């Protein structure tokens, strides 16, 4: 498969002066197939329900339930592991049974998990609910993501433009949901945490109904893999595993939005009220700049260089907070380093995520895209599970203010060395 990047300049030149308008999210969405539009809208709804609850979970566990810092970090890491770490199971099920049944099963489990979490008080019950919530996403997310990636390749091969544009729009839809979700959650928390959980469950009831009605039983061009195997070949695919590890470093960094960032906001502002606005800032950046950033990167960078630039930007975001912490600023000035961290993390994310997802189809075995997309998140989930517990302990150790943030900055910076040097297809251009 050819590198998508050279296609972008030719198409942009043909479009002329109205290229910016034509690259708007709305116009691009109208050009897509009905199936792609359904999957992208599904991502929007998923994130509205998810982010109405998750940004406030750490505070709920620490304040309302009274968990220690290390246990809060472990629970958050367990949630990510049960989701990201088990994506490989969901991906295998998608290859075996198809997209529709796996998405529907995941929605049912997410509804049950949110209701359970709303009523859970004991640590064991919280852990059980978090596991159910995470595994639900391990079912429906690989189904949606692998099919979007497959359809994006079809889009590219049809001469419509590079696949990263479709994957960027998928990210935009997710971030619109990530923008609306915390605002909805903040309003519902005026009642209580349980109300936010029940509202999240209600969103997934709507998603379930929509897919029962609109998702086709069989998607043209998607072949179900009946025979066993695939995992052994995956484990021998060094370039793919290297990509997984680098992506895991990004995900660990992103997870600090829910662990290190709330701690920093609490220190600077005396409450977590500004947290919703920082999440909104991240989402607004993605919504309005993801497609231009993806177009810019497609014109100038191959997939490896795009991921490299993104990881280094993420590392610099942690370094900004590390540099400011010794000053001990509070109030509005104290929130500026946190805002800088969010901005740099978000711009890095806009480079890393579409590139990583666009890379996977070129590294995956034929007919195993679900397995490989799932494995990408599973390896990353293992990294987050270990890293989140370590981060929770790191934040509780009373180290000099800058040290935890410097350690976190080193993770994505060092991950650049893990990126595969060359791969076939889309990343072959050097």
UniProtKB/TrEMBL annotation:
It is found in: Cell membrane. It is a multi-pass membrane protein. Keywords: Cell membrane, Membrane, Transmembrane, Transmembrane helix, Transport. This is MDR family MFS transporter. Residues 1-11 have a biased composition (Low complexity). Its main location: membrane. It comes from Streptomyces massasporeus. Pfam families: MFS_1 (PF07690). The chain crosses the membrane at residues 35-54, 102-119, 125-145, 166-187, 193-214, 240-257, 277-297, 309-329, 335-357, 369-390, 402-419. Residues 1-22 are annotated as: Disordered. InterPro entries: MFS, MFS_dom, MFS_trans_sf, MFS_Transporters. Gene3D superfamilies: MFS general substrate transporter like domains. Residues 35-424 form the Major facilitator superfamily (MFS) profile domain. Residues 12-22 have a biased composition (Basic and acidic residues).
